[in-house]
Amino acid sequence: MEEKVNISIDFAGIRLGNPVFTASGTCGYADELSDFMDVSSLGGFITKSITAKPRQGNATPRIVETDSGMLNAIGWANIGLDAFVEEKLPALEKLSCAVFVNIAGETIDEYVAVAERLASSDAVAGLELNISCPNVELGGISFGTDPSQVAAVTSAVKNVVGDKILMVKLPPAVTDVSVIAQVAVDTGANALSLVNTFTAMVIDIETRKPILANATGGLSGPAIKPIAVYLVNKVYNEVTKSLGIPILGMGGIRTVSDAVEFIIAGASAVAVGTANFVEPGCAVKIIDGIKGYCASKNILNIKELVGSLEVN
Amino acid sequence: MSEKCSAAKRGVYWATVCGNKQIGERFYRLGLEFSGAGAEAFAKIGAGQFAQLDLSETALPPADKIPDELADAAERKILLRRPFSFVDVTTKHNKTSVDILYCVIGPGSLRMTSLSAKDTVSVIGPLGNGFWVPDGKKTALLVSGGMGAGPLQHLAKILTADFRDINVTAFAGAKTVEELPFERQLDEISQQLGFWLREFARYGVESLVATDDGSSGFAGPVTDCLLEWLGKSDSACESMVIYSCGPEAMLARVAKIAKEKNIDCQVSMERRMACGIGICQSCAVECKTDRPGESIYKMCCTDGPVFNSKTIVFHS
Ligand SMILES: Cc1cc2nc3c(=O)[nH]c(=O)nc-3n(C[C@H](O)[C@H](O)[C@H](O)COP(=O)(O)OP(=O)(O)OC[C@H]3O[C@@H](n4cnc5c(N)ncnc54)[C@H](O)[C@@H]3O)c2cc1C
Ligand SMILES: Cc1cc2nc3c(=O)[nH]c(=O)nc-3n(C[C@H](O)[C@H](O)[C@H](O)COP(=O)(O)O)c2cc1C
Ligand code: FES
Prior knowledge:
The structure holds 2 protein chains of 2 kinds. By secondary structure, chain A is α/β, with parallel strands linked by helices.
């Protein structure tokens, strides 16, 4: 039965061998993971956020563990666009899975410059737009929390990416995630990914100071999974289902059943993030497990599972 | 080892516990055994390299074995692996045994105490770059603070086995004698001969002890003990190398001494690590570049944890 199950998917116009990705910032530039798994066996790979210039990132501590989760405030540390294109893209081009480059910026011009250059590369299947960044031109308000900013950055990037997939990554802590999702889709996104991390804080009660040097950080890991599943289901029902736009669901995925939950909620594909730190290579196990789950439920094509939530 | 000794093939391996002995109020020595690919991967591990242990499935010790000051922290669930380096590595009959010297300070190390023979632990490693031996060295000084003593014992073993023309002396510091992570100090006669610690004496390595409160050995910081020793030594500075592992404030003082005396010095840095394999960027260490005044972040887990002390920008 299992060999008859088709878990390949159509993702915004491209064919992926399976619906499992690794999430931005949790799998480096792929070369670091090669001792632990065959990155090519993934459905898709997403780089950490790339910015126009290299970024050193924040002071330490950059992470702190919490119950069933962790906070990070890495500060978009990355080698910058030039070095990325010269040093990392050639190796990524050799991967047989779809490669998405996550891009971040502090101004719309920065997003556009990075997107334009990457869109000209054959190695890149698409871009993932990290809109959880402060807009320095607007006093540091996060792009992703303001619908007009989401529209501005999405449409500006859309203009320069040609036929590459433009996936907008949604911040979860907004009044109504569907409003942001709708704006992104209306202004050019042909896929959505959610969720990014939740802004959070851990306090050292001895010093009464935040543990992270940056004071706050993004919460990820199993702790956020039920909220992420809910948000994926909400965006699926309220925005993407009728338009046929795929969702890449993520947030706390660690096991096969976690991944299946997201797919039932409406995600066409899923990404593994924090779990890579604990079990590098677990994404590959999840691919096999999804196949096994489908077989056990007599599902021949994973498509049947997407958004199959039964509401009582 | 004149090159930086970097990891053999890194991987996720299962190890079997072969011992977990309490050697002090808060200190334990855990023995792990690898067979198959794990045995091969860990056989040649260099001193100062490390591994990431998954302790999330390990049970807490019984309530009466949990120190009062950790009772609250013990309630915390563990998600991430914990990094540990090694105090000894041996191979026999296609198996590799590694020992970890550890201190109980939080939920992970507390869980570690309940591991017992035949339990299995998932270990990612070998990771990072260990200590190396620059050319032309005749004297190696191993300077540890607290738990830093572990990897320096491993280094003492390697130096005395493979670099026989190098003279090795160890300095071990702690706040008080109770916080020295050694089983037992040697008797007075041995101490007068310069051998305080059995763990180093077994390799024929002289050792000195320093405690802040003077409860054993030199009264004062281990760095003062080192300075005093250097003052009496007639070895040429170019022929010496200092290896140091311990709290960052101590490493900073050791680095300063090394710089003033123009002695080569390597320090093992510690950072909070999520992955240990270079994918999360959490373990940044500020390092100088060739350009004056400029610094960049390097990753403790993949560029270190052992660094040339000259490159580190210390903040403490
Ligand atoms: C490369 C490397 C090698 C190591 N080798 C050893 C070893 O051989 N033996 C040994 O006992 N320990 C070693 N450590 C330290 C060890 O990893 C920690 O003691 C362990 O993670 C503690 O876990 P825990 O859950 O018990 O406590 P946690 O709850 O994780 O920590 C307890 C306390 O320590 C603080 N803390 C945790 N990690 C750090 C950090 N990296 N820097 C500063 N403060 C921190 C926390 O804020 C908390 O107050 C090593 C660390 C590194 C990075
Ligand atoms: C250490 C770390 C670094 C991350 N870096 C990025 C990043 O550079 N860009 C981005 O869009 N998301 C980043 N993320 C967010 C993840 O891609 C993902 O959206 C989030 O962690 C939720 O998934 P998880 O719970 O499976 O980790 C990062 C997450 C972590 C834990
Ligand atoms: S611990 Fe993840 S990069 Fe060093």
